Amino acid sequence: MEPLPEHTIPFTGLKDGTHEFEFELGPSFFESAHEEEFEGGQVKAVVRLDKTPTLLVANMHLEGTVAVRCDHCNAPMNQPISGDQRQIFQLHGEEQPDDDELVVLDARAHSINLTHYFFECLRLSLPARHVHPAGQCDPEVDAVLGKLALEQEPVPDPRWDALQKLKPKRP
Predict the structure, then answer these.
(1) Could you tell me what percent of the chain has a pLDDT over 90?
(2) pLDDT for the residue numbered 169
(3) Which residues pair with 46 in a beta bridge?
(4) Which among 155, 83, 143, 149 has a CA at the least distance from the CA of 119?
(5) What is the mean pLDDT of residues 80-101?
(6) Mean pLDDT over each residue of the chain, to the nearest integer
(7) Cα 31 to Cα 4, 7, 117, distances in angstroms
(8) How many Cα atoms occupy the beta-carbon half-sphere of 128 within 13 Å?
(9) Which residues contact 36 (CB under 8 A, 6 or more apart)?
(10) Residue 118, by phi and psi: left (phi above 0), alpha (psi -120 to 50) or beta?
(11) 67 contacts: CB under 8 Å, gap ≥ 6
(12) Which of 111, 112, 120, 160 is deepest in the core (most CB within 10 A)?
């Protein structure tokens, strides 16, 4: 995902300590994500940045809704999301470690852009399956799916009976 300038935090002028920033992830964010699954959304990102002489620790919290399609009826829906992520930036580092949570910044860097990390947090916060709450799916699609559903009684697996016999009996 391309970095958006509105998600940049210049850290060179910040004093050591904790600083808080708020960002709105709206239409421009979702358009630049180029993610077919996202049809839009409104998400608030709160970043608590802890600055020390050698590290920047960004604790991100995302809260809001993302417009997606229901996996059951394919109707549009707003999926609520809430997620947290921590990203550590090492200042003036020499080598790139194997740690995904640690990013080494160039000695000339004076700002960090969080667009990519917002996208990661958002992606990880979305459930794997997006379904309307019970009774809110498209009634026409529900009716068609109800007609196509096979109604059969599950056949018990005889192996479970053999395993039940191996269980110790309790008094």
Answers:
(1) 54
(2) 75
(3) 22, 61
(4) 83
(5) 81
(6) 88
(7) 11, 15, 16
(8) 0
(9) none
(10) alpha
(11) 30, 38, 39, 40, 41, 76, 77, 78, 79
(12) 112
User: To which residue do tokens 């979305």 refer?
Assistant: 126
Domain range summary for the chain, segments of one domain joined by +: 5-150
Q: Over range 38-62, report the average pLDDT.
A: 95
Q: Which residues contact 17 (CB under 8 A, 6 or more apart)?
A: 50, 51
**Tokens at 111, concatenated:** 């700002």
Instruction: Give the integer Cα–Cα distance in Å for 71 and 77.
Output: 10
User: Rounded to whole angstroms, how far apart are CA atoms 151 and 78?
Assistant: 31
> Residue with structure tokens 């096979």?
150
Cα–Cα distances (Å) from 68 to 6, 30, 93, in that order, read 24, 11, 40
Read off the pLDDT band of 164 (50, 70, 90). Answer: confident
State both tokens at 49: 């940045």
Q: What is the pLDDT of residues 7-29, one digit of tens each?
A: 999 998 899 999 999 999 999 99
β-strand partners of 58 = 49, 87
43/79 Cα distance (integer angstroms): 11
Instruction: Report pTM.
Output: 0.78
Q: State how far the Cα of 72 lies from the Cα of 69, in Å rounded to an integer.
A: 9
